[in-house]
TrEMBL record:
Binds 1 Mg(2+) ion per subunit. One of its GO terms (cellular component) is cytoplasm. Its EC number is 2.1.2.11. This is 3-methyl-2-oxobutanoate hydroxymethyltransferase. Homodecamer; pentamer of dimers. The lineage of its organism: Bacteria, Bacillati, Actinomycetota, Actinomycetes, Actinomycetales. It is found in: Cytoplasm. The gene is panB.
Length: 264
């Protein structure tokens, strides 16, 4: 089966099929998510928190995103790969944004994601006009955590009008989709109704055109996960149990057993 491309997503969106997206950062997990039938894999800059042990996405470098994109692209064949433009890799202008985005496409992404609203519309337009599909990202935008004061609901009350205007600006600039993170469900519904591109929600209620989750939250890898991220499994616990069995059997001398080695 060939890779999902933007026209496939647009067709699914027009047919009213809800779109699915999960983050992926490496060649171990990405094919497992592909096997579940996910439409899009997001090489998110959340890899800073999930895979690199940072407290935020701000330290993530373009080189981190390139390495992860290559791994996800090499290990999958079907989902559309969207890679985040990390903090500091695009804000200075069209030349910087194009250079970073082109590098990510060369690494194997089919599209990039850019945080921000009307103030970024000129960057989105330039990338799209030059053949690079862009997904927008509004609401809680982790790269602006210092300005926003940490993860909290965005677009409440009158601020909803600003978010709505930003959503229109991003769509008019040519974005093929828009992530809405931590916004009131009623606002996400309104944005979804008014735009003619798919909205992908995370902590934005059920009425978006699709949903995205960080894979480790979805799978229940850590003891804590955000309230909007349902744990669809307890994979972290299963992994620790497997590792504990390995440690115990190795210490007891029951591993490796006769099935696990050969004389010739
Ligand atoms: O980096 C990421 O994982 C994201 C999602 C939260 C949408 O941007």
């Amino acid at each position: 089966m060939s890779r999902v491309r933007i026209p496939h997503l647009q067709k699914a969106y027009r047919e009213g099929r809800r779109l699915t997206m999960l983050t992926a950062y490496d060649a171990t997990v990405a094919p497992l998510l592909e096997a579940a039938g996910v439409d899009m894999l997001l090489v998110g800059d959340s890899l800073g928190n999930v895979a690199l042990g940072h407290q935020s996405t701000l330290p993530v470098e373009l080189s981190d995103m390139i390495r992860s994109t290559e791994a996800v692209a090499r290990s999958t064949t079907r989902p559309l790969i969207v890679t985040d433009l990390p903090f500091g890799s695009f804000e200075q202008g069209t030349a910087q944004a194009f250079g970073s985005a082109a590098t990510l496409l060369k690494a194997g992404a089919q599209a990039v994601k850019m945080e921000g609203g009307a103030e970024r519309a000129h960057l989105i337009r330039f990338l799209v006009e030059n053949g690079i599909p862009v997904m927008g990202h509004l609401g809680y935008t982790p790269q602006a955590e210092n300005a926003l004061g940490g993860p909290r609901l965005q677009g409440k009350g009158e601020l909803g009008d600003k978010l709505l205007a930003d959503a229109h600006a991003v769509a008019e600039a040519g974005a093929f989709g828009l992530v809405l993170e931590m916004v009131p469900a009623s606002l996400a519904r309104r944005v979804t109704e008014e735009l003619d591109i798919p909205t992908i929600g995370i902590g934005a209620g059920p009425d978006c055109s699709g949903q995205v989750l960080v894979w480790a939250d979805m799978a229940g890898m850590g003891a804590w996960s955000p309230s909007f991220a349902r744990r669809f499994g307890e994979v972290g616990q299963a992994l620790t149990e497997a590792a504990r069995a390995y440690v115990e059997e190795t210490q007891a001398g029951t591993f490796p057993g006769p099935d696990h080695y050969r004389e010739s």
